[in-house]
Amino acid sequence: MSLDESALDHLFRTARTPEKWTDQPIPEDTLRALYDLVKTGPTSGNSSPARFVFLTSQDAKQRLKQGLSQGNIEKAMTAPVVAIVGYDPLFFEYFSRLGCDPDLRTWFASDVGLSEETAFRNSSLEGAYLIMAARALGLDALPMSGFDASIVEDTFLAGEGWRANFLVCLGYGEPVETPRAPRLPFDEACRIL
Hints:
- One of its GO terms (molecular function) is 3-hydroxypropionate dehydrogenase (NADP+) activity.
- Its EC number is 1.1.1.298.
- It comes from Acetobacter sicerae.
- By secondary structure, the protein is α+β, with helices and mostly antiparallel strands.
- It has one domain (about 25-175): NADH Oxidase.
- The chain has nine helices and four strands, in the order ααβααβαααβαβα.
- Strands 1-2-4-3 form a four-stranded antiparallel beta sheet, sandwiched between helices.
């Protein structure tokens, strides 16, 4: 069953990355509903390596500020929530609870490079699910990569042993006035073999 045109518009065609945020807060139950959607998205072998830290307080966002590139400070400081999309390098320790093939744990545990690559790739997928789930719930999302990962990890993730992938500001954006930036056409970006 395909989504109707209005749903496709809402998720993709007319959805925009906000430039400014309204003051409307995001309640905790919305963040929980958001994760409940995200966690159902597919990952390699159900590995589910993504970990999310939702910064909702001004104190938490102020601690993030030191790790942001100059162009991202205002966007993040004014967003109701900044989500750190991270990953657990030891994601394979949860395989028994996630119903994964028991032999996979040994495979990943014995190959740090494979584990790191798998965790990063699949947490990127889960971060994309976060953006689309946010749109589905009526939120706007602004992904950003302009930050110092070591500062974010030391400040927010070190106690868990998680690593930072990227950030997503969440909230209710003010209408975007600028035209959408161009995208590559199918024939330049795709091949059918």
